[in-house]
Design brief:
Number of strands: 10
CATH superfamily: Glycosidases
Low-confidence stretches: 159-173
Helix content: 25-40%
Number of domains: 1
CATH class: Alpha Beta
Strand order of the largest sheet: 5-4-3-2-1-10-9-6
Structural class: alpha/beta
Largest sheet: 8 strands, parallel
Number of helices: 9
Strand content: 5-15%
Order of helices and strands: HEHEHEHHEHEHEEEEHEH
Length: about 350
């Protein structure tokens, strides 16, 4: 099927989505409470949301430096973790006290980030985790499972809520969110999409927790608030060959988390529930090895350059965007060794 003749059933026009694709290369910025807790041997599904806001305390926070590094690396857009699984918010949300407003550094990081992007010619995007260990409202998160293995055994089966494993009752249920949590998420997403200007992209992580009904409502609400925004419901797998509609649909993009480098090109036209859609792809991975976490660890070093080049080159040849995570350290700045690697990567990729 020729793309120039194909219009598709997607919300955004092919021209709008191809404009997003032309951006090509962006910076993922994981920063927040997880930068400061569980630093010794981080455990999967942590932090648990119990750490006081004061634990977040960057002493040299420089958001403009992050965006300058992205620009100088040849990147064209950036996505910041406004709220990750700790539930800690990098903006002073009116719907919780678990925010920068009560922390060791009260800077509204979301505001500083968007302002820096505007100043540096970088398109801003925000990440929001639907998996929240602090604001439970009766929800069940991955942290409720007795072990990482127990969760992944169940997740591999994609058992619906209420299903039970043969070897144990309660631990067999998938994660879910209550209507109270969903109202909370809607209120916070509304803050982010109405207080900080036009965003390029909104990343909703762990969308499986939301259920198809609320996820569809949220997608439509985000599109109503910012009609031009590109919505990513993260399907959380390296491969894009099998797209799990029950897990992540509707979405304007398909994520390839720690995307596998193959000889196959990314398939942009997808047949979903009887209709054809044009859906671009985005590979996200980190500049440092992900040791069960995307946030900075004190002894982090960059991945081998050949790995980064191979993955970036596959994105180019395969037709997917490359969103490279570059996490600031505890001081609130991107470390020198990451900056050096980004500059070398830019030269090798001819940016």
């Amino acid at each position: 099927m020729e793309t120039q003749e194909f219009r598709g059933a997607q919300r955004l026009s092919i021209e709008q989505l191809q404009a997003w694709e032309r951006l090509g290369y962006g910076m993922f910025i994981h920063f927040g409470m997880s930068t400061y807790v569980n630093l010794e041997g981080k455990v999967f599904f942590k932090p648990d949301g119990s750490d006081p806001p004061s634990r977040y305390n960057p002493d040299k926070l420089d958001v403009d430096q992050w965006v300058s590094v992205a620009r100088d690396a040849g990147m064209t857009y950036a996505v910041l973790t406004a709220k990750h699984i700790s539930g800690f918010c990098l903006w002073p949300s009116k719907h919780t006290d678990y925010t920068v407003a009560n922390s060791g550094n009260r800077t509204d990081v979301v505001e500083a980030f968007v302002t820096a992007c505007e100043r540096r010619g970088i398109r801003p995007g925000l990440y929001y985790s639907s998996y929240d260990n602090h604001h439970r409202f009766g929800s069940r998160t991955r942290s409720d499972f007795p072990s990482k293995q127990a969760y992944f055994e169940l997740a591999a089966k994609r058992l619906p809520f209420g299903s039970e494993r043969p070897d144990g009752p309660d631990e067999g249920r998938m994660i879910y969110t209550t209507s109270l949590y969903q109202s909370f998420q809607t209120a916070q997403i509304t803050e982010l999409l109405t207080q900080y200007g036009q965003l390029l992209e909104i990343w909703i992580d762990h969308p499986d927790a939301l259920g198809r009904g609320y996820r569809t409502y949220l997608y439509n609400e985000m599109a109503r608030l910012q009609p031009e925004i590109v919505v990513m419901m993260n399907n959380g797998t390296p491969s894009s060959e099998e797209y799990d509609v029950d897990y992540a649909w509707p979405s304007d993009l398909i994520a390839m988390e720690q995307g596998e480098v193959t000889d196959k090109k990314y398939r942009k036209i997808r047949h979903i529930e009887g209709k054809d859609y044009y859906i671009p792809g985005e590979v996200c991975d980190s500049i440092a090895p992900i040791r069960q976490d995307w946030f900075h660890l004190p002894d982090d070093q960059p991945r081998p350059m050949e790995e980064l080049v191979r993955q970036f080159d596959w994105c180019r040849r395969g037709g997917a965007n490359y969103l490279l995570n570059v996490p600031p350290d505890r001081s609130g700045r991107i470390p020198t060794e990451f900056i050096t690697t980004l500059q070398e990567l830019r030269k090798l990729m001819g940016l």
